[in-house]
From TrEMBL:
GO MF annotation: an example: ATP binding
Entry's Gene Ontology cellular component terms: membrane
The family this protein is said to belong to: Belongs to the ABC transporter superfamily.
Keywords per UniProt: ATP-binding, Nucleotide-binding, Transport
Alphabetical list of CDD domains matching this protein: ABC_KpsT_Wzt
Protein name as catalogued: ABC transporter ATP-binding protein
Length: 244
């Protein structure tokens, strides 16, 4: 089988929440008052190595804060690793932070067109895609509305519809989808099942261990930013359960 994802010695340091609330006035004041503390950094991913082959369904498990979502973001290119490399072959559909890339000031239609242009589609292709995207997201009546005028569920629906309009080679899922209302959730599930049954490579983060056993070939166990174990889904889940 061909290798589609290679994570090679990936480490990522992130600033802690403390530095997040950093602002100049506060910093200057704390220096003047003599209680300035240097921002803290945390090693969120620590020398992660693994390879995923074409068509594999891989689950990522681990305790809260172990780095699962961060690892997905690094694989999708949303975050850059501090060191190490990620190589991805094929079209990737990241179903995480749905809608994070939209421009809230421009219309739903213009956001779809912008996305198509970024992906290098022709005008005709974009038009066809726009119709099927709007239809799936059930947003035909909202095509001229600026994205900031949509509800958060609608934004997620639009994000999902765009990301899955073309069958991706690699599907990246953070937790099993909780997009929109019940009927839309079912529609998303059916679309995901179609990818799952096909040749797509799937990487999924979930706390639902029975889901991982049932739907994944292999699993990765992250523990405080380190890869603790990788192997058959059943084995990794058993070892994880033994440890908690
Ligand atoms: N935006 C951020 N800035 C700084 N640190 C962050 C940020 N997001 C997450 N972290 C930190 O990175 C670490 C890993 O977080 P991550 O969200 O990847 O964990 P997770 O395994 O997905 O957790 P969960 O199971 O709770 O979703 C945590 O220590 C968290 O505090």
């Amino acid at each position: 089988m061909a290798e589609v994802i290679r994570v090679d010695g990936v480490s990522l340091w992130r600033r802690t929440q403390e530095e997040f609330s950093y602002d100049l006035k506060k910093t200057v004041l704390s220096i003047l008052e003599g209680n300035y503390r240097k921002p803290v950094k945390k090693l969120v991913l620590n020398e992660i190595d693994f390879v995923v082959e074409s068509g594999e369904k891989v689950g990522i498990i681990g305790a809260n804060g172990s780095g699962k979502s961060t690892l997905l973001k690094v694989i999708c290119g949303i975050l850059q690793p501090t060191s190490g490399k990620v190589r991805v072959r094929g079209q990737i559909a990241p179903l995480i932070e749905l809608g994070a890339g939209f421009d809230p000031e421009i219309s739903v239609m213009d956001n779809i067109l912008l996305y198509g242009v970024l992906l290098g589609f022709s005008r005709r292709e974009i038009k066809e895609r726009a119709e099927s995207i709007l239809e799936f997201a059930e947003l035909q009546d909202y095509q001229l509305v600026p994205v900031k005028g949509l509800s958060s569920g609608m934004v997620a629906r639009l994000g999902f519809a765009i990301a899955t309009d073309v069958q991706p080679d690699i599907l990246i899922l953070d937790e099993v989808l909780s997009v929109g209302d019940e009927s839309f959730k079912n529609k998303c599930k059916r679309r995901i099942e179609k990818f799952w049954d096909g040749n797509a490579t799937v990487l999924v983060v979930s706390h639902d261990l029975s889901f991982i056993r049932q739907y994944c070939d292999r699993a990765v166990w992250l523990d405080k930013g380190k890869l603790r174990l990788m192997g058959s889904a059943d084995w990794v889940v058993d070892c994880y359960l033994d440890s908690v």
